[in-house]
Amino acid sequence: MSKLTLGSYPHLLGFEQLERLLERSAKAGNEGYPPYNIEQTSDFSYRITLAVAGFAEEDLSITIEDRQLVIRGRQRDDSEGRIFLHRGIAARQFQRMFVLADGVEVGEAIIENGLLHVDLSRAVPETVVQKINIRKG
């Protein structure tokens, strides 16, 4: 049985990039840590909120790599010289990736009360009508 691809459909011309985007999106960090929300804040803006309790601003990095928003967290190990009777709060690192569509721009990032907010905006699409002239061959 052969795998159906977007290229298999004759009316979907030039959508190979969309297929690659879907494959990248499926691979982009299926781990459940840290938990996050994605909300639509207006018709053309969004906010990603990650629960990053215990992470300081300098422990976090936000980059855009090949149309992917990559959020990384790495806590410093401050346990040297301390004796824990129980250690239930682990210092762990994470990487969350979000694939960005063309026209989506990353705005500001704010950390407050253990939550990291990253604002995104999408350019208002412009309606374009193009007339194609027909010439005799």
Automatic annotation (TrEMBL):
Keywords: Stress response
PANTHER family: PTHR47062, SMALL HEAT SHOCK PROTEIN IBPA (PTHR47062:SF1)
Record's protein name: Heat-shock protein Hsp20
Gene3D superfamilies with a match to the protein in the record: 2.60.40.790
Entries under CDD domains matching the protein: ACD_IbpA-B_like (cd06470)
Classification via InterPro entries: A-crystallin/Hsp20_dom, ACD_IbpA/B, HSP20-like_chaperone
A Pfam family that the UniProt record links to this protein: HSP20
Domain SHSP residues, every copy: 27-137
Family affiliation: Belongs to the small heat shock protein (HSP20) family.
